[in-house]
Every structure is written in structure tokens, then in C-alpha cells.
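Handoff note, outgoing to incoming analyst
You'll be picking up this chain. Sequence as last confirmed:
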Amino acid sequence: MAKPTKWETDTSAEHSAWYIKRFRELAEQGADLGGEARLVDAMVSPGSRVLDAGCGTGRVAAVLHQRGHAVVGVDADPLLVQAASEDHDGPTWIVADLSELDLALQGETEPFDAVVVAGNVMAFVADGTEVDVLRRLAAHLAPDGFIVIGFGLDRGYSLAGFDTDVVAAGLAVEQRFATWDLKPWHEESTFAVSVLRHAPS
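Most recent structure output, in case you need it:
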């Protein structure tokens, strides 16, 4: 059985409800909620298979679906997945822990061209499962696929620790940026967006 994620242990059902309400209100206000999706869309071919890992209320997956991709959204919080399914038709929505992810058991047997991990997801996985999460995401990639992960560096998960975990998971950092709109990375950056691929054998 998977260890409880930090989202589960550090938050509550009330927090999930607040989170859902917040993003619904932002959408109603016309806020730009698709920046991460635009980046992924630019990196893949039309009609690609994309996994939104830690999809939350589905904002990234929804935009990718609108742009013609086949999208699966996965999150460990059933309340967030329910909200995603209510608000966004098109993507496939699945409740699952990323550290034990096996989408073939859910009927999703085809590999993915890209995996997007937005919204500080890596800071919310259970302590000690970071390598497991990265390995399970890598296991769902097509041979030439990529993972793009963004998180704030003030969230308790250091970039040095992340880079060590990336190597342990059999992946390699191909590119790194300071924002989802590709501002250059520098040592004083407070956010990191990393593009990962399978490490050369």
C-alpha cells in the first residue's frame, strides 16, 4: 500500500474543497491557467498521448485535450479528480498514487509521448517516494518521450535532491528553465522547470 502523500497528511477535505473552488473562480474570471499546457503542446506532435501526473482539477489536461491530444489525468485526491471530471469533458480521469502508478491496470496500455507534472506535485508526494514516482512516470514513457516537471524551490524539495533522484530513476535532465514560459535558468531562480528523458544506456 502506498504511503500517504504530503497532500493527504498536510491538508484536509476542506482544503481540497477550497482548492477546487479557487480554480473554478479563477477560470470564471478568465485567468490564464494553461501556461504549462502551451509549453507541452509546443514540444509534442499533433495528436500526441500526454499524461498529466498530479492533474488536480484538470486545468492542464483540459487545455491539452482542447489542442487535440489524447490526455490522461491522474491524481491521488479523489475530490480533485471528481471536480476535473465534472468540469472538463474529454480527458480520461483516474485516481491513483503516482508512486505505484500502473495505468495498464486501468486499460491505458499505450505509452505516452509526454508526461507533465505541474503545480508543485513533487513537493506533495510522500517523503521517500520521489524516486519511485519518477521511475513509475518513466515506465509510462515512449522510448523518445519526455517528462517536464516544475516546482518551487521553497517547497522543501531541493533541486540537488531532485537531480539525485532523477539519476536514480534512470532519467537525465535534458533542459532546465526558471519558468514555464522558458525564462533562462540561473542559480538564484526560485522555480525550476526540468525536461527529463530516459538516460542513455
